[in-house]
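Teaching soon. Got one?

===
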Amino acid sequence: MNNKLLKLESCRLCSEDNVSIFYLDNENFDKIFFKCSDCNLIFVQQNSLPDTNVEKDRYLSHNNDLDDPDYQAFLSKLWNPLERRLENGSLGLDYGAGPGPALIKMMSGDGYFVEMYDPFFANNKEVLDRTYDFIVCTETAEHFHYPSKDFNRFDRMLKLNGFLGVMTSFTDNVSNFGDWYYRRDPTHVSFYSTKTMDWIAAKMNWRVDLIENNIVIFYKS
């Protein structure tokens, strides 16, 4: 393998240099996954980050029907515990809503006012300059090329006493990273553990509640 490809990179969440090579993709040998020993993030080498065309095509291939009860049940795993923490009528943001914003439909139907942002399907950058009572980020954090940028953005956008709900599959119970379906998606480039979520909470001075093995709710106090 080209030695240039083996050059270690600083962590794209915590910026530390305590990074090691975690996994070499045998099917695509120029793709390397690093792991940070400080925040526990696993991330893809920078020169393997997908371009925007690959990402958009992948998102368009998802068949997420807004009215599919199974899909709504999946999203409810985040929305139900988050809603219990909110005052009715709160203002929220769906960050990374995708081409079929089913969660917005659910939240609006429950009496909440929700803005939408997605870099491909709702690139309304003015919504990023506002503040919100809550933010939802479902199956999106694994796509973050530079997670520190997005989580710092969340901190700026969240009002005091606001909530951030994140849904992404954690690495804690993954016995074989190479075979893990989640990492085999070429647009998934950042992988988190519960330790990573604890690190984010400590860094941002948030509280964190682990809801399930793929859901956390942060609280900005």
